Amino acid sequence: MNGTRKTRFPMFATMQRIPGGLMLIPLILGSLIGTFAPGTLEIGSFTTALFSDGALPLIALLIFATGTQVDIRSGAAGVAGHTVVVLVFKTLIPAGLVVLLGTQVGIDGFWGISILALITCFANSNGGLWLAFAGQYGDERDRGAYIASAFDDGPFLVLLFIGASGLGDVPLITLVAAVVPFLLGVLVGNVDQDWRKAVEPVPNIVIPFFAFALGAGINIKDIATGGFAGLFIGAGVVLFTGGLLYLAYRFILKRGPKSGIGFAAGTTAGNAVATPAIVVAADSSFEPYLDSAIAQVAAAVLVTALLAPTVAAFVLRREGGLQASTPRPLVEEGVA
Questions:
Q1: What is the C-alpha to C-alpha distance for residues 269 and 62, in angstroms, rounded to an integer?
Q2: Alpha-carbon distance 125 to 219, whole Å?
Q3: Number of domains, the chain
Q4: Greatest distance between any 2 Cα atoms in the chain
Q5: N- or C-end of the chain: fewer Cβ atoms within 10 A?
Q6: What is the pLDDT of residues 153-173, one digit of tens each?
Q7: What pTM value is reported for the model?
Q8: Residue 99 domain flag
Q9: Is 35 helix (H, G, I), strand (E, B) or coil?
């Protein structure tokens, strides 16, 4: 015996092979059980605590763990410039335009797509996908711009834009409370590398569980109906936010044939599915849109994960920038 045993049913590996699968598959399973057998999750004790009521504490842990992975020492001039450009053109400008739209049409949105769903999708990005793509075709500046996803990862910017715009009533203390776990994580991760390494696996551990708990509160019909709108939102995220960053890469950062990398940022991260619930916890006026927003965001996660790298690779190939690069590590091995 060599101490290892072959996996008979590779559930985890299967979920990882599907874009956004760690979030989407448990979400759908939770929705199925919540729709057709809701009583099974309400028997009390640890079962209810984990599978029905456990979403927010697990999301908070994920936000803390995300903060620990931000290395504030990697802020060289080139990296800082790329990070600011990515954050502004991928997240801040699109989110600002969604808020402007909301002031005109109201939080109901249009065509069954609420402002809650739109701002959640547009004010968030899949840092893992960006890092994988930029690591293959970009250089140290592109890899370092991953830091931008640490700022738009989670609910803080969404709460900030909603509160500052007047679209919702988000108290200042709620904004502070939303960002404390992230800032604490940044502090802990930068003063203690062992903590950074210890919590690095947290996303893979908690995402399936809080996704299931979120799904348990969604009627499966909402996923079916919301999915079509989510496809539309996802395509918009890729083409609009990715397109903005492509233009910024070409005309501001002057990256020439490598400008197509910008499209790889046109994504919505899997953990964005949790953001609508956090917004509703801060302002109950958004509650009527919660189920449809979660379903639409979940669909957008899948669409952007598939479409963004495809479009980025197409543009790079067309402009002669698809050659893979071998950049030097941005930070020490085992730290990033």
A1: 13
A2: 26
A3: 1
A4: 67
A5: N
A6: 667 788 888 888 888 776 677
A7: 0.69
A8: yes
A9: helix
